[in-house]
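Morning!

As promised:
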Amino acid sequence: MQSIKHIAILLPDTLQCLGLQSLLVNYFPPVEISYFYTFEALVNSHCDIFDYFFTNATLFVLNVDFFLPRRSKTIVLTADSIEVRKNTSINYVYVQASQEVIIEQLKQYFSGDNTILSNDSNKELSVREVEVLQLIVKGGTNKEIADKLCISLNTVLTHRKNITAKLGIKTVSGLTFYAIMNGLVSGEDIEL
Amino acid sequence: MPLVYSNMQMSEVVEEHLSLIPVINRFGIRLGLGDKSVQEICVEYELDCDFLLTVINTFLNEEYFPEKKLQTFHMSQIIDYLIKINESYLRYQIPNIERHLGSFIAQSSGPTNSTLCLIGKFFQSFKEELMNRILKDEKEWFPYCLSLSERLGMNQVQGDSNPDLLLDLGNQVEDTIEALLADLKSIMIKHLSGNYNENLCYAVIFAISSLEKDIKQHNRIRFRILTPMVAAMEKLCS
């Protein structure tokens, strides 16, 4: 599951905005896009929530104090192919390139994001969660599990919620399957 | 997705959305649609065109769910449709999955592939849940709904959209039957191991996923239309 990318587009050209929007929506969902026709409108918004900024070379230069510290999050549209090649510290997209090339470039700029995300979400069950899971599978009620592990009913519920979130499995049958598959309980003493 | 309208050619609509075939079958409409429009088909089969279109459109569009409109249909119409859905689960969709699953397990498992046997058992527990619900529908729930509307001498009623009720319904929509199918599918995708027949596996997952979609649609009608209608009728009766 990817989190929503918040994207600010600062471009005076409506058609360019719309084209960029359709690329982002179709190829890089989920995205939430905000448009700004002037730099003033952008800084007057809550501009810190944005994960990425799109703008053109002119506006980048005019507002370099804003964009330079954010240059890793900023992507500059340019019609000047030479500029793209000589300057590697800024993320350029050459607007006359083919759609395929532009998508490839955007993919690269966005990819830094995904690696962080996958490291972030830890899908392994904790020792305690495994204990709770074993008891659920053996048919224990929440109350029985709480008593057995000497924890409160609320804690059991929290564990259950986390287990479901981590494994993506909602039903007891599904959890049983998972537990048997992973050797957390033996198949013989469980009725599926 | 654009909505389907009565002047559209039925064959074109179906060609575009093959998943509609079982839906129109439930209304008795059979393929060999020719060039007839939806309207003409409805005349031929003596169907309420408005109702058919609403069912088709809610089936195709997950975001499209005109609760008020659905509640203006007759209670008997809605029950009739739900009965037909149940029938098609029993006669076609469940046996279809079983057939594929049976040969999937038989042809895939060496003596050791216990994962597949577990999947088989898992499906059995889903089937049991579904059968129980269908049985309860036939014996208790549907007759009760119909008797309510008869007693009131009216066939339609605007459901109450009081927030407590809706909250309640929100919980019900988290349906075990739906959840079991979703789990079954994701377990197969994530945890299959050992030798198995790829082609049959795809057939099983495909069949499960179309039944899952179907049940989701069915549940929306059940929990968001029928239940509020019944609640409103109960209030009138008391």
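The radius of gyration of chain B is 20 Å.

Hope this helps with the figure draft.
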